[in-house]
Amino acid sequence: MPAQFRMYIVRHGETEWNRMRRIQGQLDIPLNETGLKQAMLVAEALRDIPFVRAFSSDLQRASKTTEYILRNHPDTVFERDEMIRERVSKAKLHPLCVAQAHASVANCHVGAVVYG
């Protein structure tokens, strides 16, 4: 029988640009105070899940969210990879707000991807 596993996908916490409804693309915008609290809440919600590996993009909003989750899982292998970044072109969408760009955004956020 093939190996079975569960995959948990968690979006990163809020940033100031999220709050302003601005597309961040691959710009490295940090979590704001609300985003840090959200990361703590999701970490608590996932406290009892036995993770083996965790992946996130290398952007700080995703990796910081994952770091909060993994505080309760010190033996979990954590990999940051730029290939997990969202695929919205910052050159094309950087100045636009989400409402203006909504129709042209197909592959938006994968924040923190956590395997367990």
In short:
The protein is α+β, with helices and mostly antiparallel strands and 116 residues long. It is built from five helices and four strands.
List the defining traits of the structure above.
116 residues, disordered C terminus, alpha+beta, globular
Q: Using only CA atoms, what is the Rg?
A: 15 Å
- Which ranges are low-confidence, i.e. pLDDT below 50, for 5 or more consecutive residues? 90-116
Shape: globular
Assess the beta-strand content as a share of residues. Answer: 5-15%
Terminal residue distance: 18 Å
Mean pLDDT: 79
Determine the number of helices (DSSP H or I, runs of at least 4 residues). Answer: 5
Largest sheet: 4 strands, mixed
Question: What's the helix and strand layout?
Answer:
Layout: E1 7-10, H1 16-19, H2 33-45, E2 53-56, H3 60-70, E3 77-80, H4 90-93, H5 98-101, E4 112-115
Parallel strand pairs: 2-3
Antiparallel strand pairs: 1-4, 2-4
Helix pairs in contact: 2-3
What does this structure look like?
The longest helix has 13 residues, at 33-45. Helices cover 31% and strands 14% of the residues. It is an alpha+beta fold. A four-stranded mixed β-sheet has the order 1-4-2-3, covered by helices on one side. β2, α3 and β3 form a beta-alpha-beta unit. It is built from five helices and four strands. 26% of the residues are buried. The protein is globular, with a radius of gyration of 15 Å.
